[in-house]
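Quick question, first post here. What does this chain look like in 3D?
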Amino acid sequence: MRRVAIAICVCAGLCGPALAHAFLEQAHPAAGENLHAGPSRIELHFTEALEPAFSGIDVSNESGANVASGPVVVKDGEMDLPLNHLAPGRYRVSWHAVSVDTHRTEGRYNFLVLP
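> Answer (accepted):
Ran it through. Tokens below.
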């Protein structure tokens, strides 16, 4: 019986931290989205609260130039980055997020502004 109690405690201790990563839940514009007009901002929503000092977004055009018009705003589980006017073309969004319990996730995706 004691072994069962110990096994339950060990499993319970291992399950908690594994769920504490901040995963991207929703993005505007979405990955692979084709837009008829450039967005004015990138909005990312995560499954956990973020640590603002260690989370961010970069958006670049096809030549690699940064197209942000200001700093990223990180609040709770959301990141918001204002953008300059975007001409037609492909854009890359790169993000990194650190949850308040210090787990890091990152990713990147593209979207297209149509002519």
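Strands lie at 24-28, 34-35, 41-46, 56-60, 73-75, 78-82, 89-98, 104-113.
Residues 22-113 form a domain with the Immunoglobulin-like fold (CATH 2.60.40.1220).
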